[in-house]
Each structure stands twice: as C-alpha cells, then as structure tokens.
Amino acid sequence: MVYQPVIGMAFLIAAVLLGASGAITGDTIKLYFLGLPMVLIGMWLGLKLYGHLDETTFRKIILVLLLLSGFFLVVPMSAFL
Q1: Rg (CA), the chain
Q2: Which residues, at least 6 apart from 53, have a Cβ–Cβ distance to it below 8 Å?
Q3: Averaged over 11-22, what is the pLDDT?
C-alpha cells in the first residue's frame, strides 16, 4: 500500500525536474495526457484488488502484467498488424 504513493511522488518529482531542465516538449505533454487516464485507472484498480486478493495472487498478476508490458516494449506493433 505504501509503494504506489512513493512511485507517484517519484514520477511527479522526475516530471518537474525534467520540465525545469527543458527536456519536456509539447509532444511529450500530449503523450503524457494521453497515457494519464490509463495510469490512473491502473492505480485505482491496483488499490481495489490489493485488499481483496491474497498477496501471492496479487504478486502473480503484477508479474504477468510486467511480463506483458516488457513483451510489448520489445516486440514492434507491426508484428501484430
């Protein structure tokens, strides 16, 4: 339960520091707002599921989601089209 707020704050601090250094462009902001709803839905769903699942099942779900995330980062989308 402690991890999500810590990760959220780390993300916020990183965004502020990147913005202050000029590394964030208009396209970056567009992509941020495009992905923000999915991040918020994922955080909400994670908080809801964490209280209802035992720790082992929750960890297995997280590991499968991380595996899928890594897979889709490595394999180009053109492979599925």
Answers
A1: 16
A2: 61
A3: 90
Closest CA relative to residue 3, chosen from 57, 53, 59, 56? 59
| Distances in whole angstroms, Cα of residue 81 to Cα of each of 35, 66, 68, 69, 76 | 22, 22, 17, 18, 10
Report pTM: 0.52
Q: Could you tell me how many residues make up the chain?
A: 81
Who has greater pLDDT, 69 or 3?
69
Q: Which amino acid is at 28?
A: T
Task: Please name the helix (run of DSSP H) or strand (run of DSSP E) that holds residue 73, with its range, or none.
Answer: helix 55-74
> Helix/strand/coil (H, E, C) string of 13-36?
HHHHHHHHHCCCCHHHHHHHHHHH
Note the pLDDT tens digit of each residue in 42-65: 888 888 877 788 889 888 988 999
User: Cα–Cα distances in Å, from 39 out to 17, 21, 71?
Assistant: 20, 24, 18
